[in-house]
């Protein structure tokens, strides 16, 4: 309201004064005051497919005003309500519920005089109470969001003012698209910004995205090409470019656009140039950029979809039964209407029964029956449990509270416990039939440990490292942290570092203190920090078990023979050097540079200097080494085979293999620029005249003396470097290379610096990075080699992909071609061996390109980079052209060990009747090995493998496997009985052949086609476990969707990475593991745990409890409402179906709303049919939830029949006890109410399996509240409900022995059948749950 008044006063003053608007001021949006529900504060008008961003500066005034109408401001609003719309909007949302609409209809109906049954105010009371409770809950939750929004909107940042010609403090909410923003180290980014300047000498900005996706490892962003070379900050007044980019979207991994200069030259923009709102600037003194998306159009806000809402299976079942209750109500009301019509017809001429209107008109029996139908609807309204939905919400909150406070879910290492992100599907945890699990990071630790490698066809098994891992116990104490590396290791342990802000001495921002947090104070002066300050933080994937690699002695011996003298002493007349040494060099260079690892050292000052690529090496050696590499790259050789068992030193690699994310060219240059740079380069072979390459220099020059690899003067030791990797695979390979003294020293958008053993520092000019993606399944880096000067492509990726991309024929002649074939065969054998040991495999390859080939490719790639539409497809096509004709260097085997407790958990889940599928992108042998290790597959299982290249072959193979299983296992399902079989526990199917199925991604593509789906499901139904390997993220989600929709079963998907998100979202329940790969899976999940072993207790214990509790509570609500309402219905047979109640209306309303509402809620929160220990020891007890035994249609109707019986007893026992007496109507109704209260509460006691003092306290409290209310109401209400009144009735009954006798007899007679049934059930035909009682 205050904002609305400010807006009105502001515009009135400007209208009266007639002063034009200051162009530097922000246009105040009235529409933002009316926004709600977290939507954009102003609906943007369509601007086609693209957005044009114009700087908010004087020269662009007219153009800015033209486009500013499509922008929104940076004010965010996640609240639903305002003070003005809270009541109408909240009521509107609540009346979306059918039950609330039903009771609103009854309230309105009761205001019609002809059908009025109660006092008008009384009918409104239940609805008002329920609506008020939910409104208060919604209001408190929304107010909490409002306070957070206000705090965020009032944070302060530096925005360039075109009026004051300098950066000034402004609140986040006043930032608009086109503004120039300056940010300091540790400051949170207020909007999506294109990076134009960084104080880092290489134009790099480090950001931490934990506020966005939970990942704490640093990521690099880079200045737009053309601006990174500037030594000073960009002057906004001189900025004359405009930006065209894609419209706002929620894809965090994509940004397409271009920056167009005034001369129409375009520069491509990608996600590497975009700083996202919510991220934090780290390790960079200051940055500057222009806002392209603000407020609710930022990618962070577009991904903020709020809490997940799913409707549970039990709730859907309850909604169906509510419809049955409505049908029952209609039947009872029709009976009443028909009875009233017959009654009046019989006594039509007796005025006592048919009183005429004042004008003498008499209502016909037919019309009176019609009116009575609606009166009966009002009278018997309690049959529909209005409090059921509120009670369910309260019970679920209680269940979630106990789940989150279970100490068994606490992970001390990660200091985290379970997160319940979906509040309304806890009971579904007790009904899971199919479980779909990722492998890496879910079943395994996702701690990648380098185990083996194959180079040039020779296998190096790293036995010393294996022995270290077997005896390794990860230390937690300070003593262990301070201990040195294991003996034999060439490197020390990486120590934790603080995200420091490096001091930079050039540029106008260099004088600013790195601790100045401009975004940490709010306009209100609260002083609360919005972002954390520097703190000690362990880098991701840097535990000692991952970083400490013991080199293989054989490979180390060969490595030690690589010296500058070995290479430099050769000339044209001497024989070629050992080519295996060159393979080893290329292999480890590929491991070190083919990644996106960020290198940093704490408090390390940096400065930008001109330095020749290898200025520290002897000039003579440099010349000769260059000449050698050039000779070897163009000369055909006839070297002896490397693949023979004699290990000759020969062979030359032509490409390095590596893997990265999607196509972002770091510092891309146009083809023209590349041509110029090539012509400017000095002739090859001249070390002294080589063009200086800018490189990082840390407090001194580089120098390498002799063959000994020593730390560079002024440079940190390798052990002090910190590697920030985006995936554990990348980190493992970099640490493995470092163990062999091939140390990654630094990385910038233009170069990568290595320390390579005795060769000293090597500076590679980084031309392109082609990142890893799930389509290509590989990554590549394109560099200019510092020794040969040639363009080299290093590629690493899945062996199934890289092997297909190898060159068919080597260019160096038949001998080398034969040699490559043998290397390929040997490497494939090694890969198969790694996979059988359960190792993750990668192939390493390279390709050498001529300048002509590279220029041609670059021209096409540059066009793809600057396009907005279809950019991904064009970049993919460009990458495919580059990544071919590769030369295989070798392969790696990385171990990802099983998490603690995984085999035991999977075994328990199998016994619980849950079918488990493992969906992984790993190769077949690795997946099968892990499946056996985690007991997903047993040694005695018959393993069937579906691996075909065509659809027809897939059909034939599935038929063959299905027939074999059915022959050996008669219990296998026939097609007609497929769905029924899937609802039976596996124990019933396991009398014959135990089968497991392995299917590859290519065959899975065929199996998911509509014509083969049913056959595929029939086959999987016969198998104990299914392993899908080489599966893409899309295939994972399609598999889950297929099983869920076709088999009508409850599914659960669990994963830890971004590739599991689609699978998690499709399943009935999605569970994310907060592990090593960020928080994308957690953010998309319903529940989040830290380890897979926690899943067993979550399902077997809490899932079972939640299902049993809620099922019985819902049934109990139906029971008590039907039992009590029927008392009113039976009474109609004795009052001419007149719609009269034998109970006072207030007692009638409070009976369900107050006196009997708390006990079932307590039951729903605290009931335990079995202890947690018993449920964990006997997983088979979980099957009762899978079969929905606690809440079947049969159970519902038996409960209603029991309610009808109890109501008959409760009515007719007091009726015959007081028959013939002269008691009035309310005196007859009082023992009915009292007996009904005892029956309903003691019924709950019979159904409870464990009674605590809380149960007793609530039940006693309900009884006392009833009697206290009845006594007080009877004492004060003299004329509350004329002509009958409850005055002093309870007081008189309390002194009457007959009253007590009637209540006791009625209660015993009503509950005797249920008590007898429970006793006989426990002794004669106990269920598995009852048989397990002795375990407690």
UniProtKB/TrEMBL annotation:
This is Phospholipid-transporting ATPase. Gene3D superfamilies: Calcium-transporting ATPase, cytoplasmic domain N, Calcium-transporting ATPase, cytoplasmic transduction domain A, Calcium-transporting ATPase, transmembrane domain, HAD superfamily/HAD-like. CDD domains: P-type_ATPase_APLT_Dnf-like (cd02073). Residues 502-544, 668-712 are annotated as: Disordered. Residues 1082-1327 form the P-type ATPase C-terminal domain. Its cofactor is Mg(2+). Residues 66-123 form the P-type ATPase N-terminal domain. It is a multi-pass membrane protein. It comes from the Eukaryota. It catalyses: ATP + H2O + phospholipidSide 1 = ADP + phosphate + phospholipidSide 2. Residues 519-533 have a biased composition (Low complexity). Pfam families: Cation_ATPase, PhoLip_ATPase_C, PhoLip_ATPase_N. The keyword Magnesium applies.
């Amino acid at each position: 309201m205050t904002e609305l008044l400010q807006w009105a006063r502001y515009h009135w003053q400007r209208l009266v004064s007639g002063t034009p608007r200051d162009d530097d001021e922000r246009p105040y949006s009235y529409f933002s005051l009316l926004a709600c529900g977290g939507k954009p504060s102003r609906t943007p008008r369509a601007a086609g497919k693209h957005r044009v961003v114009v700087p908010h500066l004087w020269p662009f005034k007219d153009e800015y005003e033209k486009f500013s109408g499509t922008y929104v401001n940076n004010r965010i609003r996640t609240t639903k309500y305002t003070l003005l719309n809270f009541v109408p909007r909240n009521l509107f949302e609540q009346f979306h519920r059918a039950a609330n609409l039903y009771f609103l209809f009854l309230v309105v109906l009761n205001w019609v005089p002809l059908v009025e049954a109660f006092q008008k105010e009384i009918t409104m009371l239940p609805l008002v109470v329920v609506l008020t409770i939910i409104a208060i809950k919604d209001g408190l939750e929304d107010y909490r969001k409002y306070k957070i929004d206000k705090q965020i909107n009032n944070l302060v940042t530096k925005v360039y003012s075109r009026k004051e010609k300098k950066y000034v403090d402004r609140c986040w909410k006043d930032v608009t698209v086109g503004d120039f923003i300056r940010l300091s180290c540790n400051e949170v980014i207020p909007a999506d910004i294109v990076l134009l300047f960084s104080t880092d000498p290489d134009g790099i900005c480090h950001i931490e995205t934990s506020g966005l996706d939970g990942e704490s490892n640093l990521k690099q962003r880079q200045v737009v090409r053309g601006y990174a070379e500037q030594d000073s900050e960009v002057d906004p007044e001189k900025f004359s470019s405009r930006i065209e980019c894609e419209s706002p979207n929620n894809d965090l991994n994509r940004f397409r656009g271009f920056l167009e200069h005034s001369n129409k030259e375009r520069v491509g923009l990608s996600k590497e140039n975009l700083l996202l709102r919510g991220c934090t600037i780290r390790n960079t003194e200051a940055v500057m950029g222009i806002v392209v998306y603000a407020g609710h159009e930022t990618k962070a806000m577009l991904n903020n979809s709020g809490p997940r809402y799913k409707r549970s299976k039990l709730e859907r079942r309850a909604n169906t039964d509510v419809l049955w209750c409505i049908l029952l109500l209609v039947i009872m009301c029709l009976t009443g209407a028909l009875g009233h019509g017959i009654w009046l017809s019989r006594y039509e001429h007796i005025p006592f029964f048919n009183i005429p209107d004042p004008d003498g008109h008499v209502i016909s029996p037919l019309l009176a029956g019609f009116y009575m139908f609606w009166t009966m609807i009002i009278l018997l309204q309690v049959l529909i449990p209005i409090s059921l939905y509120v009670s369910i919400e309260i019970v679920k909150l209680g269940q979630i509270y106990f789940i989150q406070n279970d100490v068994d879910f606490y992970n001390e290492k990660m200091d985290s416990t379970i997160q319940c992100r979906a509040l309304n599907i806890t009971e579904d945890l007790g009904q899971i039939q199919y479980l779909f699990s990722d492998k890496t990071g879910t079943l395994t630790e996702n701690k990648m440990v380098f185990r083996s490698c194959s180079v040039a066809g020779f296998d190096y098994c790293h036995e010393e490292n294996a022995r270290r891992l077997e005896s390794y116990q990860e230390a937690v104490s300070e003593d262990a942290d301070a201990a040195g590396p294991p003996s034999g290791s060439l490197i020390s342990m990486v120590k934790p570092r603080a995200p420091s802000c490096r001091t930079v001495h050039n540029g106008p921002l260099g004088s600013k203190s790195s601790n100045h947090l401009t975004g940490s104070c709010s306009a209100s002066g609260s002083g609360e920090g919005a972002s954390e300050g520097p703190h000690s933080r362990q880098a991701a994937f840097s535990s000692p078990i991952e970083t400490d690699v013991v080199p293989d002695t054989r490979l180390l011996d060969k490595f030690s023979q690589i010296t500058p003298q070995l290479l430099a002493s050769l000339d044209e007349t001497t024989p070629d050097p050992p080519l295996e040494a060159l393979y080893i060099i290329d292999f480890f260079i590929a491991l070190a540079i083919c990644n996106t690892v960020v290198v940093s050292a704490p408090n390390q000052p940096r400065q930008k200097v001109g330095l020749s690529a290898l200025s520290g090496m002897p000039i003579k050696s440099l010349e000769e080494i260059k000449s050698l590499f050039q000779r070897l790259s163009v000369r055909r050789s006839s070297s002896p085979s490397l693949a023979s068992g004699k290990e000759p030193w020969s062979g030359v690699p032509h490409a390095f293999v590596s893997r990265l994310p999607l196509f972002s060219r770091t510092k891309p240059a146009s083809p023209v620029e590349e041509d110029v740079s090539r012509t400017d380069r000095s002739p090859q072979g001249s070390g002294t005249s080589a063009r200086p390459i800018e490189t990082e220099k840390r407090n001194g020059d580089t120098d390498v003396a002799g063959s000994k690899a020593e730390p560079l003067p002024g440079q940190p030791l390798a052990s002090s470097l910190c590697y920030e990797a985006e995936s554990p695979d990348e980190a493992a390979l970099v640490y493995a290379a470092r163990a062999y003294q091939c140390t990654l020293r630094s990385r910038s958008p233009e170069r990568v610096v290595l320390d390579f053993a005795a060769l000293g520092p090597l500076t590679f000019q980084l031309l392109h990075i082609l990142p890893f993606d799930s389509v290509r399944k590989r990554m590549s880096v394109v560099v200019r080699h510092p020794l040969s000067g040639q363009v080299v492509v290093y590629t690493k990726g899945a062996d199934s992909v890289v092997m297909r991309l190898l060159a068919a024929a080597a260019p160096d002649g038949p001998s080398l071609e034969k040699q490559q074939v043998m290397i390929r065969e040997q490497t494939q054998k090694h890969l198969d061996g790694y996979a059988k040991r359960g190792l993750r495999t990668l192939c390493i390859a390279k390709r050498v390109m001529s300048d002509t080939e590279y220029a041609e490719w670059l021209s096409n790639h540059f066009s793809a980079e600057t396009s907005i539409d279809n950019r991904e497809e064009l970049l993919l096509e460009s990458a495919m052209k580059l990544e071919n004709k590769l030369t295989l260097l070798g392969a790696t085997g990385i171990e990802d060990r099983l998490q603690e407790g995984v085999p035991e958990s999977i075994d328990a889940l199998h016994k619980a009747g849950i079918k488990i599928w493992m969906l992984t992108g790993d190769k077949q042998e690795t997946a099968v090995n892990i499946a056996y290790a985690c007991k997903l597959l047993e040694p005695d299982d018959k393993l069937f493998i579906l691996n075909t290249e065509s659809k027809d072959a897939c059909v034939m193979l599935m038929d063959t496997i299905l027939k074999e299983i059915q022959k050996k296992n008669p219990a296998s399902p026939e097609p007609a009985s497929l769905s029924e079989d899937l609802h039976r526990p596996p124990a019933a199917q396991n009398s014959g052949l135990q089968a497991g199925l392995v299917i590859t991604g290519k065959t899975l593509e065929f199996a998911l086609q509509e014509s083969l789906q049913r056959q595929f499901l029939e086959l999987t139904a016969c198998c104990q476990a299914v392993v899908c390997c080489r599966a893409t993220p899309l295939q994972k989600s399609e598999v889950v969707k297929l099983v869920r929709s076709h088999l009508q079963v409850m599914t659960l998907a669990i994963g830890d990475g971004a590739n599991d998100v689609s699978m998690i979202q499709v399943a009935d329940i999605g569970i994310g593991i907060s592990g090593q790969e960020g928080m994308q899976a957690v953010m998309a999940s319903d529940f989040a745990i830290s380890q897979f072993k926690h899943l067993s207790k979550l399902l077997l214990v809490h899932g079972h409890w939640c299902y049993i509790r809620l099922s019985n509570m819902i049934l109990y609500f139906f029971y008590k409402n039907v039992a009590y309402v029927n008392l009113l219905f039976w009474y109609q047979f004795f009052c001419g179906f007149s719609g009269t109640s034998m109970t006072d209306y207030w007692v009638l309303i409070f009976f369900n709303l107050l006196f009997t509402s708390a006990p079932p809620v307590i039951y729903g929160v605290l009931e335990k049919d079995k202890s947690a220990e018993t449920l964990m020891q006997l997983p088979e007890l979980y099957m009762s939830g899978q079969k929905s035994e606690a809440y079947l249609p049969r159970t519902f109707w038996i409960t209603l029949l029991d309610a009808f019986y109890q109501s008959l007893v409760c009515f007719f026992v007091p009726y015959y006890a007081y028959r013939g007496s002269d008691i009035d109507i309310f005196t007859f109704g009082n023992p009915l109410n009292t007996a009904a209260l005892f029956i309903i509460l003691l019924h709950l006691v019979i159904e409870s399996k464990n009674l605590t003092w809380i149960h007793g306290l609530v039940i006693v409290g309900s009884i006392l509240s009833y009697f206290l209310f009845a006594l007080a109401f009877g004492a004060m209400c003299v004329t509350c409900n004329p002509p009958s009144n409850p005055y002093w009735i309870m007081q008189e009954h309390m002194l009457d022995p007959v009253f007590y006798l009637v209540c006791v007899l009625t209660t015993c007679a009503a509950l005797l059948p249920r008590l007898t049934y429970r006793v006989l059930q426990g002794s004669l035909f106990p269920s598995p749950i009852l048989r397990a009682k002795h375990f407690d």
